[in-house]
Amino acid sequence: MAGGWRPYDENATHDLVLDPDVLAAELAQELLGDPLDEIDPDDVESSDAAAECDLGLALLQGDHEQRLQGLRIFCEHRDPRATPQLLPLLEAPCPIERMSAVYALGRNPHPLAVEPLLALLASDSNGYVRKAVAWSLGNFPDAPVLNPLIRALQVDVAAVRLWAATSLAEAGSTGAAKADPAAAQLLQSLRIDSEPAVRSNSAWALGRLYPDLVDPRQQAVVQALIHALLEDQEASVRDEARLALEQLERPEVLERLQTLVDEGLLA
Question: In this structure, what CATH number is given to the domain that contains residue 171?
Fold first, then answer.
C-alpha cells in the first residue's frame, strides 16, 4: 500500500511533540499507509525493547506529558503488561491521549479493547480519535469489526473513511463470509466516494481481498478496477487500480492490461 506515515517519528522516541495544534496539523494530512509499517522489526525486538517497555509502563502512571511519552513507546513496542494501563486512557478527557491510546492498542491488540474501540468509532466527537480507531481495528480481524468499519466507510469524514477502507482489507480476509460484504462496500466507495484517497485505498483493499472472494465477486472487482484505471480523474487512483490489477497475477487480467496498452488506452 502506498505511503508510510506513522503517528510518531520512530527515530525520536523521547522527543514527543505535545502541541495539539502541531499534532492535529500532522494528522490532517491525507494518509495512505499503515502508521506502523516503517518500524524496523530488528529495532522493535532489540535488547533495549524490554527497558523501553519498563520505562513506558512507569510513564503511563505519571502526569499528562509523561503519559503521552509512555503511549508513544507502546505505539512502537508490544508488551501485554501495557493493556491494563492503556484501556482506561480510551476515556481520557484529552483527545490526544485518547488518540494515542487507540494507536497503542492497535500495536498491542487485546480482546478487551474491542468494545471500547467500537464505542469510540461510533460516538467520539473527535475525528482524529475516530481515524485512529479505524486504523487500529484492522488489527482485530477476528473481532466483530466488519459492520462498524463498513458504516464508517459509508458515513464518516474522509480521513476516517480512508482508514476504514484499509482496515476492511484485514477484517474481510478471514473468509468469504466477511470478504464479500467488505468488497461490496469497497466497490461502491471506489465508484462514488468524493475523496481520491478513499477511492485509492478502496482499490488497494479490493486487491487484497480478491483471493478470498467467490468468482462472481472477483469478476466484479476486476471490472471495477479496470473502470477506475480508465475513467477515474485522479492519477493516484488510476495508479492504485493498475497496481492492484497487476498484483492479482491472473494471466487473463494481465493480458487485458496488455491489450489496453496495445490499443493506446494505457501508457
Answer: 1.25.10.10
